[in-house]
Specification:
The complex is a heterodimer of chains A (112) and B (118). With 112 residues, chain A is mostly beta strands. In chain A, 0% of the residues lie in helices and 48% in strands. The chains are: A mainly beta (112), B mainly beta (118). Chains A and B meet through strand 5 and strand 10 of A and strand 5 and strand 10 of B.
Chain lengths: 112, 118
Amino acid sequence: DIVMTQTPLSSPVTLGQPASISCRSSQSLVHSDGNTYLSWLQQRPGQPPRLLIYKISNRFSGVPDRFSGSGAGTDFTLKISRVEAEDVGVYYCMQATQFPWTFGQGTKVEIK
Amino acid sequence: QLQLQESGPGLVKPSETLSLTCTVSGGSISSSSYYWGWIRQPPGKGLEWIGSIYYSGSTYYNPSLKSRVTISVDTSKNQFSLKLSSVTAADTAVYYCASMVRRAFDIWGQGTMVTVSS
């Protein structure tokens, strides 16, 4: 199985300041079709997960442009340019390149 | 707009079979655009992919659960279902159904809490 490792596990952030979450995979996430199936999800307290980013850097419909994704191969990053109060929650990376699809352990973003 | 809703018993006895249904509205479960999947989240923990089904009926299961899992589609009802047999307390979790396009889970149900207890 591909292991997804996120750092940090907790990220206290000041409102209006940037935040960054790293996700590293134990194997390359480049699929044989040339795509890299790495996505990012946000889970607000008491809510189901919500898709933010797919295929490394594509923002899903309705996602604010303060969220951005980058990376390649085995190293990926989610950045929030200016954290807002509604961004509090747990963020997960997920790979769907190779079965079984796997998630990172989650990074909790909270306001200082 | 696509919407998904899980339904099923909230309490299952140990060794019995957990059965959940996901009803899809706002789109066809037979669409070639989608995979359909089940993901679970034990209380206070992270997400675990259980398995997925493609519109063609092809299924893909997490090997950690494969011997106990069956996912199926009922196109007449626009639903897909999860059966997990021989459950134990370790299967207590919130169970989510979700659609997948471009190999990302884009639309999620609200989730349903299933407790395994006698």
